[in-house]
Amino acid sequence: MLLDPRGPRFAAAVTTVVLAAALIAGSLALVLTQAVVFAVTAASPRLGPYTLAYRALVAPRLDPPAEREPAAPVRFAQLVGLAFMLLAAVGHLAGLPALALTATAAALAAAFLNAAFDFCLGCEAYLALRRLTGRPVPARVPTGPA
């Protein structure tokens, strides 16, 4: 499955806002909500809540993408985000605010890198792991002339 790379970047922008709010408010509810978003998007990148918003509200106003990206790196990045949100939730529930703050801040930093600079840390980690195992995959695939 190939994705419009602008969709995950839009999702990262929304995630940045949600996680910044979670940090400011110290909100377990926002952490858990974002965990659900990460889980749904990891299961099916095309059905993620932020992806659906992108496809309904943003994509119709844009030209078709010049290139697409494989879904596997995006799924991996979403699983990494989910792991950090689960750590943050454990921190909240166990009365370990440093763990909650650190895990949320790490996920926020990764989301911000993607949103602001089009650098998906989780995707790059996935691609590096694939190269290390001798099974590289392309980061982006040209769509050809429109």
TrEMBL record:
Residues 4-131 form the DUF4395 domain. The chain crosses the membrane at residues 12-40, 76-99, 105-129. It comes from the Bacteria. The keyword Transmembrane helix applies. The keyword Secreted does not apply. InterPro entries: DUF4395 (IPR025508). Keywords: Membrane, Transmembrane, Transmembrane helix. This is Membrane protein. It comes from Micromonospora haikouensis.
